[in-house]
Specification:
The structure is a homodimer of 345-residue chains. Chain A is an alpha+beta fold and 345 residues long. Helices cover 46% and strands 18% of the residues of chain A. In chain A, the strands form 3 sheets. Chain A has a 5-stranded antiparallel β-sheet with strand order 7-3-10-9-8. In chain A, strand 9 (295-304) and strand 10 form a beta hairpin. Chain A binds chain B through residues 102-103, 136-137, 139, 141-144, 149, 151, 153, 157, 159, 161, 163, 176, 236-237, 240-241, 245-246, 248, 251-252, 255-256, 258-259, and chain B through 102-103, 136-137, 139, 141-144, 149, 151, 153, 157, 159, 161, 163, 176, 236-237, 240-241, 245-246, 248, 251-252, 255-256, 258-259. Chain A binds a DNA duplex (30 and 30 nucleotides) through helix 3.
DNA sequence: GTTAGCACTCTTGTTTATTGAGTGCTAAAA
DNA sequence: TTTTAGCACTCAATAAACAAGAGTGCTAAC
């Protein structure tokens, strides 16, 4: 499993060359590229060893070598160095993710857009999870005809609205006290715990409030328990430019996959299975059973007050410039964290 | 320009056959298809005439004929009969567009989804235009720290929220009167005329209210003047199945086009340029300069209280089953109209 | 006006060579 | 023991040649 220094050098060169050219790479190319005093024959021997160990493969006898999933994995884990971004790139990211955005959904949409543009791959961004959101304010909007809208603003500036026609009838004059009651009961509560918060609040009530409580319960009970977070995906059409997707069936698979939000989300979250979330690279759909042999994903968590609340990332062909994209995604995640932390206080 | 009965018959047969097979159609095929006592040679003569007149063309000498844009146009305008939907199809549409949906955006998203599924083409739906929307209710949500959200509910159950930090400071106790003032001033006003409504309202004010008016103006003035309506697009990936898009470049063009919402909207609205809106077929990107030679669009307006307020449609290859899709789109538009009319009162 | 017959055209698919990049292996050199 | 030069071999990709087939246009006969 341990690779010698020379093997590492050559594996690195093969992966790197293949990433830039998309062509199987032969021994002569490597010799020229490395500029060491080695002959093609020597390199061939090493490559044969690497193939035997499962890091490279040949698309057919007597073609150049191509990295396997394992080869990419070794490259990503041990060989590549995360590239430094240029000043221009940093500036661009900071500029596009300006402070002007004033709710988390806008931030995330803009993030996916930015990632797509900056990387020329598909950009993905997940809105902060409800488990990490807290109720900031509740409003009741009377729509006439015994219909109401319940509006819940969270600490990310997001607004959730729910139409309801409660079975109990509520007089106009009761709306204001009910609003106050709901605010008192729910402010600061996790968006995911609204049901419990209301229930526990009721236990402490004096009779005077009990009437309001009944209404509140009937309103809140119509709230769905858990909502899938918004998922923004942009720039997918850029993948069609790439040679690995010249085959229409490949690109069809990928787009069909994009249609299934939950599987996409699952892939994005591969990095938070156990332990603290961190930047994760999924190569060729490893371990996901998603059937996408040809795609890789780089995903980073973003945080609010040091607490990870969602993921952003890019999706592209297995042959993607990992070292550069990792840098872009991580840097962007940092900016998003800063932005949302400020927004959420 | 007038076609003889036989010419019409044959043009119809060519278009219809080409639509189903996607292969250039020859004289023999037509003879078999029509079952008249005509020989291939006769049909050939007629086809040659139709070609000369610009209704058909050959992809190369001695291939079968293929309809031109003009041929499709003649077919759509004079020859095809809008197909009756089966009971099953009607039921399906009614079922999927249930009364459960309680705001217009949900309805339109579901509509685009339904159209995509039912037609196997790309389904498009535009949310009711703001010009046709009326303010139903206004709320102010105080977010603390002199920040407020202005919430405007329209008669379609849609909610627009706006964050603002007014320069004048507003006390908590003033929020309720301000809310009442805004509701009084804006209820029933067209969403597009909010600015004017506030302005004219101020002219009639007693001093007592003038203080509120100043705040109201400062709030409303931050509202954007006109917003592009939501546009829902679904099922685009199904187009990749079709032989005309087997070429990766074609499909790339189409998806790039889908990225440009405004141009897509323009295409959808081709049917409301002058005169009352009606179902419209745009063939091969006719007159739109959108550069999409290979796509056609069928679009129908939907109405609220007999007033057209938006468009829905399907987008597919030029070779699309016009007679069936027209029926589906029109029928769906009818259901959407009924649904929204009920929703909006 | 219609049609049978025929020569002609052009696509599509198949076969056959040719080329070139790249390999594995062996034996000699370091 | 490690490296390398040399050589035979493999395989994809490209081009050329060929056959088959679908369809046409035209002419002359019905």
């Amino acid at each position: 499993m341990e690779l010698s220094e020379r093997e590492q050098l050559i594996l690195h060169a093969v992966v790197h060359t293949y990433i830039t050219t998309a062509e199987p790479v032969g021994s002569r190319t490597i010799v020229k590229r490395l500029g060491l005093g080695l002959s093609p024959a020597t390199v061939r021997n090493v490559m044969a060893d690497l193939e035997e160990a499962g890091y490279l493969e040949q698309v057919h006898t007597s073609s150049g070598r191509v990295p396997t999933n394992r080869g990419y994995r070794y490259y990503v884990d041990y060989l590549m160095r995360v590239q430094e971004l240029t000043i221009a790139e940093r500036n661009r990211i900071e500029r596009e993710l300006s402070e002007k955005l004033n709710d988390a959904d806008e931030v995330m949409r803009q993030t996916s857009h930015l990632l797509a543009l900056a990387t020329h791959h598909a950009g993905i961004a997940e809105s902060p999870r409800d488990t990490a959101a807290v109720v900031r304010n509740v409003e009741i909007m009377s729509l006439g005809g015994s219909r109401f809208a319940l509006l819940i603003a969270d600490n990310y500036g997001r607004l959730k609205s729910l139409l309801m026609s409660p079975s109990v009838s509520i007089a106009e004059t009761d709306v204001a006290p009910l609003r106050n009651f709901l605010n008192e009961a729910l402010r600061g509560v996790s968006v995911n715990n609204i049901h419990e918060a209301i229930a526990s609040r009721i236990a402490q009530l004096t009779d005077e409030y009990r009437r309001l409580a009944v209404w509140a319960v009937s309103m809140v009970s119509t709230l769905p328990r858990e909502k899938a977070p918004e998922l923004y995906l942009e720039g997918a059409e850029q993948l069609m430019e790439l040679p690995e997707f010249r085959d229409i069936n490949r690109i069809k698979e990928v787009f069909a996959f994009f249609g299934e939000r939950d599987r996409l989300l699952e892939l994005l979250r591969a990095g938070i299975q156990d332990g603290p979330p961190k930047t994760t690279v999924v190569i060729g759909g490893e371990n996901t059973g998603c059937g996408l042999e040809e795609v890789s994903v780089i995903a980073s968590p973003y945080c609010v007050d040091e607490e990870p609340v969602g993921m952003i990332g890019v999706l592209g062909p297995r042959r993607m410039p990992y070292s550069h994209l990792t840098a872009v995604v991580e840097y962007t995640a940092g900016i998003v964290s800063r932005l949302l932390t400020r927004l959420a206080r």
